[in-house]
Amino acid sequence: MNPRLATPETPTAPADSRLLLERCGRLRDYWYVACTSAELGRDAPLGRVILEEALAVFRDAQGRAVAFRDRCLHRNAMLSEGEVEGGCLKCPYHGWTYDSRGSCVRIPSEGQDCALPKDRLRRYPVREQDGLVWVWMGADPERIDKDPFPMPHWDEPGWGAYYMITEFENDVTNCAENFMDVPHTVFVHKGWFRSTTRKQIKMVVERTPDSVLCTYHQPQDSIGFTRFLLNPTGEPMVHTDKFYLPNMTRVDYDFGSRRSFIITSHSCPVSDYQTRVYTLISFRLGNRLLNKLGKLFLPPYTRQVIWQDVVIMANQGKSLRRYGAEFRNSPCDVLHRYIESLREHEQRDGEGTLRPQTTEVDFFV
Prior knowledge:
With 365 residues, this protein is an alpha+beta fold. Helix content is 17%, strand content 32%.
């Protein structure tokens, strides 16, 4: 491959004063993860920020997850620092209390028979699925036209699975690109994931209206620990990377019919350069005993690899904040350009035409 560098891309425009929620176009019309189900107990609310919108998340009297804008109607105190009492959310400042619909049901200073305000807290639709609490951030709940992304093999017999939650100092697009980027692994994860071998790999990248799908043709490729745990018999590895709007990545490594390792990440935008990532590690290692060993040995390994990505993403994010985005792309960066084009198209509310496209590229690792 002869990687001829392209001309610089147009620098990203500086952010305006509006919240990210108000300037992200159709990117708000999706489900975003607020927390894991395990994080959200019955006794206290959680404060979360998605697209710069502050949320108070709690469980009502029936145990259902509820999400409000994190602002009391009274004096604008943050409800997420209050209490859950009888399935209602109580403000920490003056005790105004709200039911699961967002209606104020009690004002302690006014006694039992006081007039209550008719307006309600801003409530966001919530679904609990696959061990996660998802919030629909769109302005109009009537426009919900999709389900939360299905997290693969969560709580499925024969599979092991666990979540990791990681804070990145970079934006969603760059995080998603990083999670699917193969060339960086021999530098950022040297010795842990891959090492430089000068092997040639053929990559086929397909852009659809809502996804970027990558297949790698290199059956002798491997990742750091596979020959010991995932692939002790040396089966050919099938590697695919997939991006789905607005922010989902799924990386699959399959070793024959009985062994698989899948990394699925939801990149939740907190602000322009802060992203909270919920990563599901799903694996099957051939039998129950090996799955138990996987639950013991995989978490520290995957935590170290993700931490290496945290460091390099902070490196890139710091430079982007200083100079803006001015990328020079080699041919194997077609993956990045396709992801960027999909997200930019949604941010522009679907303006213009984005045709399906497939590209084949050879590169070395």
